[in-house]
């Protein structure tokens, strides 16, 4: 008998890691979305929320650490699996007719990697402030008098740039695609498959994917459309 | 030639136990020194190989299939009999024994059949322990059905794929031994000759079907579990690659061939649809429970079935056999179909078919019930014929299905060549002149799991170990012969394909040695076969070489053997001046056209000895004694 | 019917192959796909060339020997049907048909359409059995098994080992095959004793044979001629998760 480490490297356990980390990312994206939508509540709401997060202190770092680990695990495992899968069929068919697979399921790595590239941009933009230092360094005075980072102004200012917005919308669309397959797939991977609730899982996956799209896209659209200024 | 059946003394019910208690044993520590070659991985071969490896023998298994799981046993649909009496309907070992002897038209060896019925019980236990998913009732116990006209429900089944489930069970048991390094598997390896040393079977020569490499295998005993030879008719329900080569080449080395002419024809197969036809598909006999069989009353009636009024239809089975009707036994139903087609009243392409009509059943039971009972069979029929049996009557025709004949073996399953054991459909079997439904699976597994493990040790312990190696001159000679034959085949470079010869031979056999045989017909066949064989050896063409995967070369070798073996079948059918079970001679029938046995003169096993290609073989007889059952006429009126 | 066939021709494992085209006319709609190839082969032999090698035996859809990619679908366009049971009436006059072997590194091509599927046998040999010797087993009715469980196990055991799941899977994964055996045995009382070891061993052999992983495309389910459900893959995943943390 080999060790638990080798079992974890098996195709199945690798997929379990994919599923768990992917679901963690989906969870993060849901929370992130809830926070982002506060932009519609005006500067006070979102800036207060932003400060609230920072006030978590150590806990925030734990959460950040968790999500980073999930991402790294997800990305590395996906590449490891992709290599395996590619080497499992080196000569491809002259003709293939997909029946059950979907465009989304067949392009998981491409959508995933594109998301990764965008993510780096996104982080350097909004988290590390490397894209536009001017808007990143603004500050805002909360009603309780505290001076905090002006997330609202930064978001509004940057999304007024149509290029940034369009890139963002494309990335969100990819997230949507990725999620349509990812969510139900994760359940199957985790062994959760039963005719009585498979339909529900499928629908939930689709629902979350659409929610992501509408939710995230609404922000740049609202800003470009001058609904949020 | 010596034929000693070695039947143990004593009352029939105690023979097997007594024999087991007295056979010689091999010391457990010594078993690994005995190498056993098992050829074939069907039910018989896989079960034997697995069990012998468990016991500690050094087992080597050969199969021409790419995996042991693909052996022809996989195709059995109906079920497997066992005298468990789980249904409390009066079944017993004796009753199964009696039914089998009677069903075989009193041409089987009582002692073997009794043992078969005894161990049938263990087979089911064994299979269940392996995880074979037999059908069950809601309470969790095993379900049974009555099959092939039996009066008790003793057939265990797994939906329509009993053979597959049993074979997978045996295959898994074998692969477990392969995984443990206790058995060595030689897949895609075809046995092409048997090697005898000092009269004992001590190995085989095989060809690897991918590389063409010829290998000599030396062993302490050889087990042939190579299945039946129904494909001598070209069209049969057997898998395409089933063949007679292994047993026939053993026959050429001196093994006696028992009852080659006994062939079972199954009445409910899908008819031939054209010249391209490559095999025939069996449909479960259960269809006859609700379907009514008929043909038009007038010859050459080409109207659609729906346009033929009731009073112009001939429900011939119901007419001739009022009490059994559409459920008459296989041989009777088959012959009746042939008769009406010979009269020109057959339906469908070529007039070779009869209707199996569900219109009444649908009226009586409703389409839903019919669908529940036969839905998957109807689907299969529609897939193959493109016709919807809910609307148009099915067309069926009899087809060759099983061969009761095979290499002669004694009670220990050893042929007249010491060390050569024969199991499953390949031996001349416990089924006499006709096999009952669901009994072949039983026999294959009985031989492999529960008989050979006891009797093989007896052979080893009875003779001094020979320790032959493959350098022995007999191996060198056998290998040269095999290579010579392959080269000869490859070098003919004629004009006709192997397939065309096989088709032609099949037609000769079907016409003259098929469902109904006559003296003249058989003589005609004995004239035609050698001619065809001669043409084959002059005019066959085999593209490609022998050092690669060459399916035509494989096929050619098999057809070459069929072309010799067919003659043997005809000789046997010709000499047996009676009708019994699967052998029907038109000259020997009652006034109503029923088979007329001749117990006085033919109550024996015909075991044939080879005397050279084209020569008439020598007949040896093993007389059959019936002490437990009284010989009676089968009547299904 | 007239047809144009594009068939993969490859002399042996060592050489590379290519698609070759053949014209067929007079194809009867009643022929099975393999009978159509038989007729083609007779013609090829007549021309003195080497016929197309393809595997087949029972021609009844149960032995699992036959199998080829027909127009990009494992066993062709008809659902729940093996190549040998596919009939030409499913095609139209004038159709072009591409015919390729199963493609997977774990199924190396031997010749033309014939591939080596012995990796499946090795997966079974590594644990696809119940460890019982012949003899000495309890009476068959000593272990009652509910009909639902029995049917569930049976549906998994219906696998014929044809390899269509691997062929159809974009990752050439053998999950459906392996899970069918693991679930067949793992859902029966007889298979409980070794359930955890079995999944560990069979999955590790499956991985070592070079099959891909599962992305849940479910192409396997669509291609399986016996309709085996991906539910069994989920069961295997559950067992594997449990085994990972319990087997030592
Ligand atoms: C369609 C059909 C349905 C049937 N249904 C039933 C049923 O419901 N109940 C029942 O009891 N019986 C049934 N039978 C009969 C039964 O299936 C067979 O008689 C039985 O399975 C034969 O088993 P076997 O082990 O003797 O041979 P097989 O299963 O035929 O195996 C032969 C083996 O020998 C190997 N072999 C042969 N020659 C060579 C060689 N030269 N070199 C190397 N290997 C070789 C093959 O590769 C194969 O592994 C049915 C038969 C058919 C055709
Ligand atoms: C935005 C973030 C992401 C989310 C929400 C997410 C989510 C998921 C989930 C839940 C799965 C399903 C796992 C399973 O099938 O069991 C999955 C699969 C996958 N993800 Fe992501 N993922 C994200 C980003 C990425 C990134 C950046 C990559 C890039 C490498 C990636 C590559 C993949 C791949 C390739 C699969 C399929 C796994 C396989 O083939 O086995 N994902 N993803
Ligand atoms: S030839 Fe047996 S399944 Fe097709």
The small-molecule ligands in this entry are: flavin-adenine dinucleotide, protoporphyrin IX containing FE, FE2/S2 (inorganic) cluster
* Largest beta sheet: strand ordering of chain A: 1-2
* β-strand amount of chain C: 5-15%
Number of domains of chain A: 1
Number of DSSP strand runs of chain A: 2
Overall geometry of chain C: elongated
**Structural class assignment of chain C:** alpha+beta
Helix content of chain A: over 70%
Could you list the spans of chain A in which at least 5 consecutive residues all have pLDDT below 50? none
Q: Give the distance, in angstroms, between the N- and C-terminal Cα atoms of chain A.
A: 63 Å
For the termini of chain C, the CA-CA separation is 61 Å
Looking at the overall shape, the CATH architecture of the largest domain in chain C is: Orthogonal Bundle
Count helical runs of chain C. 8
Major sheet attributes of chain A: 2 strands, antiparallel
Write the layout of secondary structure elements.
The complex is a heterotrimer of chains A (229), B (637) and C (248).
Chain A: H1 4-8, H2 11-36, H3 43-55, H4 58-88, H5 103-106, H6 108-127, H7 133-136, E1 139-141, E2 147-149, H8 151-159, H9 162-189, H10 195-224
Antiparallel strand pairs in A: 1-2
Helix pairs in contact in A: 2-4, 2-9, 2-10, 4-6, 6-9, 9-10
Chain B: H1 12-22, H2 28-31, E1 35-39, H3 43-55, E2 58-62, E3 80-81, H4 93-103, H5 110-130, E4 155-156, H6 162-179, E5 183-186, E6 189-197, E7 200-208, E8 214-218, E9 221-224, H7 245-252, E10 257-258, E11 263-269, E12 292-296, E13 313-314, H8 316-320, H9 330-342, E14 354-357, H10 359-365, H11 367-385, E15 394-403, E16 406-407, E17 420-422, H12 440-462, H13 473-492, E18 496-497, H14 498-513, H15 519-539, E19 540-541, H16 551-575, H17 599-602, E20 604-609, E21 618-623
Parallel strand pairs in B: 1-2, 1-9, 2-5, 9-17, 18-19
Antiparallel strand pairs in B: 3-4, 6-7, 7-8, 10-16, 10-20, 11-15, 12-13, 12-14, 14-15, 20-21
Helix pairs in contact in B: 1-5, 3-6, 3-12, 4-5, 5-12, 10-11, 14-15, 14-16, 15-16
Chain C: E1 3-9, E2 18-24, H1 33-46, E3 69-70, E4 73-74, E5 96-100, E6 109-111, E7 114-115, H2 118-125, H3 147-157, H4 164-168, H5 175-186, H6 195-208, H7 219-223, H8 231-246
Parallel strand pairs in C: 1-5
Antiparallel strand pairs in C: 1-2, 3-4, 3-5, 6-7
Helix pairs in contact in C: 2-6, 3-5, 5-6, 5-8, 6-8
Bound molecules: flavin-adenine dinucleotide (FAD), protoporphyrin IX containing FE and FE2/S2 (inorganic) cluster.
């Amino acid at each position: 008998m080999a060790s638990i480490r080798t079992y974890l490297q098996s195709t199945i356990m690798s997929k379990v890691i994919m599923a768990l980390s992917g679901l963690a990312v989906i969870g993060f994206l849901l929370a992130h979305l809830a926070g982002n939508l506060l932009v519609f509540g005006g500067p006070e709401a979102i800036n207060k929320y932003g400060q609230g997060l920072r006030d978590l202190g150590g806990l925030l770092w734990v959460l950040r650490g968790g999500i980073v680990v999930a991402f790294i695990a997800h990305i590395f495992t996906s590449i490891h699996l992709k290599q395996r899968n590619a080497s499992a069929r080196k000569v491809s068919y002259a003709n293939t007719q997909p029946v059950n697979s979907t465009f989304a399921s067949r392009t998981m790595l491409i959508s995933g990697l594109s998301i990764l590239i965008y993510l780096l941009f996104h982080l350097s933009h909004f988290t590390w402030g490397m894209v536009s230092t001017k808007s990143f360094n603004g500050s805002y005075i909360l009603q309780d008098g505290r001076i905090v980072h002006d997330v609202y102004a930064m978001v509004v200012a940057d999304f007024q740039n149509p290029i940034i917005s369009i890139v963002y919308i494309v990335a969100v669309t990819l997230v949507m695609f990725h999620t349509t397959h990812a969510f139900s797939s994760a359940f199957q991977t985790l062994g959760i498959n039963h005719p009585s609730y498979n339909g529900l899982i499928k629908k939930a996956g689709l629902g979350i994917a659409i929610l992501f799209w509408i939710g995230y896209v609404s922000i740049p659209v609202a800003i470009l459309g001058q609904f949020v200024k | 030639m010596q034929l000693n059946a070695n039947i143990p003394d004593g009352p029939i019910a105690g023979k097997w136990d007594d024999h087991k208690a007295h056979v010689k044993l091999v010391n457990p520590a010594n078993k690994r020194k005995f190498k056993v070659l098992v050829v074939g991985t069907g039910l018989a071969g896989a079960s034997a190989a697995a069990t012998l490896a468990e016991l500690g023998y050094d087992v080597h298994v050969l199969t021409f299939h790419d995996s042991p799981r693909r052996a022809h046993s996989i195709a059995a649909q109906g079920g497997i009999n066992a005298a468990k009496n789980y249904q409390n309907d009066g079944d017993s070992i004796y009753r199964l024994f009696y039914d089998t002897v009677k069903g075989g038209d009193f041409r089987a060896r009582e002692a073997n059949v009794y043992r078969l019925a005894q161990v049938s019980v263990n087979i089911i236990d064994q299979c269940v322990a392996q995880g074979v998913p037999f059908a069950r009732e809601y309470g969790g116990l095993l379900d049974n059905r009555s099959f092939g006209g039996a009066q008790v429900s003793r057939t265990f089944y797994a939906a329509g794929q009993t053979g597959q489930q049993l074979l997978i069970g045996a295959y898994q048991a074998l692969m477990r031994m392969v995984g443990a390094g206790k058995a060595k598997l030689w897949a895609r390896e075809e046995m092409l000759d048997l090697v005898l040393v000092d009269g004992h079977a001590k190995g085989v020569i095989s060809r690897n079907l991918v590389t063409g490499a010829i290998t000599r295998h030396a062993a302490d005993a050889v087990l042939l579990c190579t299945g039946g030879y129904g494909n001598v008719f070209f069209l049969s329900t057997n898998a395409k690659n089933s063949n007679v080569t292994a047993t026939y080449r053993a026959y050429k080395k001196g093994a006696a061939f028992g009852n080659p002419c006994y062939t079972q024809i199954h009445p409910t197969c899908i008819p031939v649809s054209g010249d391209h036809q490559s095999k025939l598909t069996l449909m479960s006999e259960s269809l006859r429970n609700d379907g009514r069989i008929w043909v038009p009353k007038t010859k050459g009636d080409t109207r659609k079935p729906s346009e033929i009024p009731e009073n112009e239809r001939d429900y011939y089975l119901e007419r001739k056999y009022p009490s059994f009707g559409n459920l008459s036994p296989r041989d009777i139903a088959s012959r009746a179909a042939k008769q009406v087609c010979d009269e020109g009243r057959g339906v469908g392409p070529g007039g070779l078919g009869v209707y199996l009509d569900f219109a009444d059943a649908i009226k009586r039971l409703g389409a839903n019930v019919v669908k529940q009972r036969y839905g998957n069979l109807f689907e299969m029929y529609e897939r193959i014929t493109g016709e919807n049996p809910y609307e148009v009557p099915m067309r069926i025709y009899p087809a060759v299905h099983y061969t009761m004949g095979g290499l002669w073996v004694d009670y220990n399953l050893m042929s007249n060549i010491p060390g050569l054991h024969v199991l499953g459909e390949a031996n001349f079997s416990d089924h006499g002149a006709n096999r009952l439904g669901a009994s072949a699976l039983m026999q294959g597994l009985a031989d492999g799991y529960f008989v050979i493990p006891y009797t093989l040790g007896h052979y080893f312990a009875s003779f001094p170990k020979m320790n032959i190696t493959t350098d022995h001159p007999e191996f060198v000679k056998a290998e040269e012969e095999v290579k010579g034959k392959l080269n000869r085949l490859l070098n003919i470079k004629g004009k006709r394909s192997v397939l065309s010869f096989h088709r032609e031979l099949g037609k000769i056999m079907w016409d003259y040695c098929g469902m109904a045989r006559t003296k003249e017909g058989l003589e005609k066949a004995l004239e035609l076969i050698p001619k065809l064989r001669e043409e084959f050896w002059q005019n066959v063409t085999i593209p490609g070489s022998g050092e690669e995967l060459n399916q035509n070369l494989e096929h050619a070798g098999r057809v070459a053997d069929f072309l010799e073996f067919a003659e043997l079948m005809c000789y046997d059918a010709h000499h047996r001046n009676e009708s019994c079970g699967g052998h029907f001679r038109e000259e020997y029938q009652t006034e109503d056209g029923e088979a007329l046995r001749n117990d006085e003169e033919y109550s024996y096993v015909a075991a044939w000895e080879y005397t050279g290609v084209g020569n008439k073989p020598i007949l040896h007889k093993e007389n059959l004694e019936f002490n437990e059952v009284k010989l009676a006429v089968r009547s299904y009126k | 019917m007239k047809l144009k066939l594009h068939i993969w021709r490859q002399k042996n494992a060592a050489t590379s192959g290519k698609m070759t085209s053949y014209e067929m006319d007079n194809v009867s709609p009643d022929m099975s796909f393999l009978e159509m190839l038989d007729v083609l082969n007779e013609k090829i032999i007549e021309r003195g060339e080497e016929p197309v090698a393809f595997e087949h035996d029972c021609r009844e859809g149960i032995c699992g020997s036959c199998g080829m990619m027909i127009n990009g679908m494992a066993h062709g366009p008809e659902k729940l049907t093996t190549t040998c049971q596919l009939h030409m009436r499913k095609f139209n006059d004038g159709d072009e048909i591409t015919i390729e072997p199963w493609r997977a590194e774990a199924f190396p091509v031997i010749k033309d359409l014939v591939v080596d599927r012995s990796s499946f046998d090795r997966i079974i040999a590594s644990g696809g059995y119940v460890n019982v010797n012949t003899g000495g087993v309890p009476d068959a009715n000593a272990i009652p098994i509910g009909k639902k469980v029995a049917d569930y196990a049976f549906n998994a055991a219906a696998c014929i080992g044809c390899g269509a799941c691997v062929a159809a899977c974009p990752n050439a994964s053998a999950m459906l095959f392996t899970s069918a055996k693991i679930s067949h045995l793992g859902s029966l009382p007889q298979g409980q004793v070794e359930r955890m070891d079995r999944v560990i061993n069979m999955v590790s052999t499956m991985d070592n044979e070079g099959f891909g992983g599962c992305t849940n495309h479910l192409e396997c389910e669509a291609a399986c001629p016996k309709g085996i459900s991906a539910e069994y893959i989920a069961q295997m995943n559950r067992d594997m998760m449990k085994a990972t943390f319990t087997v030592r």
